[in-house]
Structure formats: structure tokens, C-alpha cells
Design goal:
Length: 348
């Protein structure tokens, strides 16, 4: 009866002309109760259920419906986004997110596939979520079951020239729901020649994300992907860019910080959880841990980093070190000691 009531609530929520379709689903689920359930993702053998539901003409709503039925009896639809956010952040509200979406923006993707193969070890050492492409979400579905999954919604218009701040819209929020992902991300480039287009893409995604109750991460990068002019690395500029992401409707802001104590102004301006991208081009992991500690000290909720992990000789060591800083509130020296312990394992 609990599930039936949830189905009825779902029918009301979607404003169907009648509730018969919701009841039909209840009968189907009850009849096929032997279908294997995936507790981590909150959906029931998705492909098999899609075929079953085709008989009641509801395939377009399957992903959203299946999320709705997961532990939402009597709680209201507003809990959906919060539940999905809980897949991206630990109980302490912080996150180590691994960016694996480089194939959409650059040819410099060495280490990505290898890192995917060791995800179980990364999860054991504190990894919370991944940012992936549409193709990855399909190819590596089993590898991502124990992680929060954020799908990249935009694509560079010039992959062979990764300094060009132009993207095109690619993935819809409904696509994200059908993938059973937990969120999606797109970029904005305040100050760039095409900033209006990037803002429009982000706003459309934010609006649709609210309809589907899917968290939206906005990656706010002044002028370009990289630091191309002095203004693109100033606290005031980064703070304004972060706030633009929030005003466009983002639930999470991904941006860079400067390393200056005034970076707190960027965090405060965002008014949303901030995950900090890679940081300076240092090859010294100790320096990166210093930067990560600084980010946490000024109020960031974690990091969303790619090559700092995928290109390191010990990706597990980097994640374990970040876990020491982000989830355990450890020192830089403690993080580096943890990292070295994993590096020694790689050498031996």
C-alpha cells in the first residue's frame, strides 16, 4: 500500500488526466517483483522496466518516476533534489569529485581510462562523485554504481584548441534522468565574447533541472577555460562570475580560486556550495595539497579535479590525501604522508 500511495502521489505530481497509469505501474511492479533491484541507484532493472512500461505509454517519465518511488512516501517531491545532492556530497556536506569529462574539451586525456579502472580503490579512499560524458555514463555504468554521477551537458566547439571558450549545448536534463545520473554540469564564460550564449545554455538547464529536481552544477570561468588575462584571476572577477552562476539557477558552483585569503569573498558571493577546480599548474603534489587546504579554510565544500588525479603516478594516493584534508580536516603534512604511503606501494 505504501508503494501504491507513492504511485498515486506521483500521478498527482505529474498532473495526469487520470491516475490509471500510475495504478497500472503499481500492478506491473507488483507482478514483476522478482526483478532485481539496485538499491544504490533507486531504480528497478531499468531496461526491462522500460519495455514493460511501454504498454502504458509512460517511457518518457520512467527515470523521474523511479527516483520518485525511492523512499519518498509522504515526503513530497521537494526531497528529490536533496536526495540526489546527497549522492554527490558526504554527510559532512563536502565532496571529492573526480572530473573525467576531458574528452569533451581537449585531447589531453591521458590517464582517464586507467583511472576509471581503479575507481573501487578511489571510493574506498574518499571519492564521492564523478563528472562524466554521456558516452562514459553508458559504457561504465557498473563502475559508477557506488558514486554520485554528474553528466557533462555541454561540449567544446573546438576540441583541438582548448583555449577557445566556446561550447554548444549537448545533453538535456531529461537525458540525465534517463541515465539515472544524479546531476549535470555546464560552463559559463563571463566576460568572453560568447558569454551570452553560455549563460543562456546554463539558464535553460537550470530551469529544466528545477522541473526534474536534478542538481545543476555551473562551472563559472571568467573569460576562458584558462587564465588568459590578469582580470580572469582576480578575486572580484571570480566572485562576480560565481554569483552569475547562482543567479542563473545553479545548485552547485565549480570555479577556481586565486590562493589569496580574500578567496573567501568568492565563496560568500556564490551563496551555493563551491567545488574548486584543479588549481595552479604545479607538479608538486605537496603544493596542491596546500592549495586544497586553503580552499577548505576559506569555505569551499571540496574539489572537482581531473588531471591532478588522473596524471599522478598514484591517483589513489592523491584521493587519499584529499580525503585527509577534506573529510578528516587533516593537515597538509598529514595528507602528504598519506599520499607517500600509497606512492611507496606503487614503487614496490
Amino acid at each position: 500500500m505504501v508503494r501504491q500511495q507513492v504511485l498515486v502521489n506521483y500521478g498527482i505530481y505529474k498532473n495526469y488526466e487520470t491516475l490509471t497509469k500510475a495504478i497500472d505501474i503499481y500492478k506491473i511492479l507488483n507482478y514483476y517483483k522478482s526483478i532485481k533491484q539496485n538499491r544504490n541507484k533507486g531504480f528497478v532493472c531499468r531496461e526491462s522496466l522500460m519495455k514493460l512500461l511501454s504498454n502504458v505509454n509512460l517511457t518518457g517519465f520512467v527515470g523521474d518516476f523511479l527516483y520518485f518511488t525511492k523512499e519518498n512516501s509522504g515526503r513530497g517531491v521537494g526531497m528529490l533534489k536533496e536526495r540526489r545532492m546527497s549522492k554527490l556530497f558526504s554527510e559532512n556536506g563536502k565532496s571529492i569529485t573526480l572530473a573525467l569529462d576531458g574528452y569533451y574539451f581537449s585531447t589531453k586525456t591521458s590517464g582517464v581510462d586507467k583511472t576509471i579502472s581503479i575507481l573501487p580503490e578511489l571510493i574506498q579512499n574518499g571519492l564521492n562523485a564523478v563528472i562524466v560524458t554521456y558516452g562514459m555514463a553508458k559504457m561504465y555504468e557498473q563502475s559508477f554504481l557506488d558514486l554520485g554521477v554528474i553528466v557533462r551537458a555541454d561540449l567544446s566547439t573546438n576540441i583541438f584548441e582548448n583555449t577557445v571558450p566556446y561550447t554548444t549545448e549537448l545533453l538535456s536534463v531529461e537525458d540525465t534522468v534517463r541515465l539515472a545520473a544524479d546531476g549535470l554540469v555546464s560552463m559559463t564564460f563571463p566576460g568572453a565574447e560568447n558569454e551570452a550564449n553560455s549563460h543562456k545554455i546554463a539558464w535553460k538547464i537550470a530551469k529544466d533541472s528545477d522541473y526534474w529536481n536534478v542538481p545543476f552544477m555551473c562551472e563559472t570561468l571568467p573569460y576562458s577555460y584558462h587564465i588568459t588575462v590578469p582580470e580572469s584571476h582576480q578575486v572580484e572577477t571570480l566572485a562576480s562570475a560565481a554569483r552569475i552562476g547562482t543567479e542563473l539557477g545553479a545548485d552547485i558552483i565549480k570555479t577556481r580560486l586565486t590562493g589569496h585569503p580574500r578567496d573567501r569573498e568568492i565563496i560568500e558571493s556564490a551563496k551555493k556550495p563551491v567545488l574548486v577546480l584543479g588549481g595552479s599548474e604545479t607538479t608538486e603534489i605537496y603544493n596542491y595539497f596546500q592549495y586544497a587546504k586553503h580552499c577548505m579554510n576559506v569555505g569551499a565544500k571540496g574539489v572537482a579535479v581531473g588531471r591532478k588525479i588522473t596524471l599522478d603516478p598514484s591517483p589513489v594516493g592523491v584521493v587519499a590525501g584529499l580525503n585527509t584534508i577534506i573529510h578528516k580536516n587533516g593537515t597538509v603534512d598529514e595528507a602528504y604522508e598519506v599520499y607517500q604511503s600509497f606512492t611507496e606501494k606503487v614503487v614496490t
